[in-house]
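Onboarding guide, step 5: your first structure request.
Type a short instruction followed by the sequence, for example:

Predict the 3D structure of this protein.
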Amino acid sequence: MPLNWMLHPALPLAVAALCLTLALVLFLSLKRDLQVAEKRWAGERQSLLTAIAQLRGAASTATVEDTPAVESVPVTGMNPNRRAQALRMSRSGERPDLIAASLGVPPREIELLLKVHRLTLQ
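The system replies with structure tokens like these:
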């Protein structure tokens, strides 16, 4: 009768008690770990809030003179509509300086456009 100990009526109760004890230990260790993490996150949150407050204070005292001026770069170049219009005007016989004046672009740009167009046609 080597298996008699397995048939003892207290064995299932002992196994259940062992499992419940293990579950309780795991639950308590998880709860402790969560408390430690919560304290750490609370500290990090507090440091972030103070940093945000300092940045808001610095931003409220900043003036326009403190910020570097950004120079606007004039937009040059021709969009496809202007390019097509310049080529149409050139085909109708207008001079490059008149085309540049009517489109509001530099004359050198019109000359370059016409040279490139002539080269592509060859």
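Each response can be followed by summary notes, for example: Residues 10-60 form one domain.
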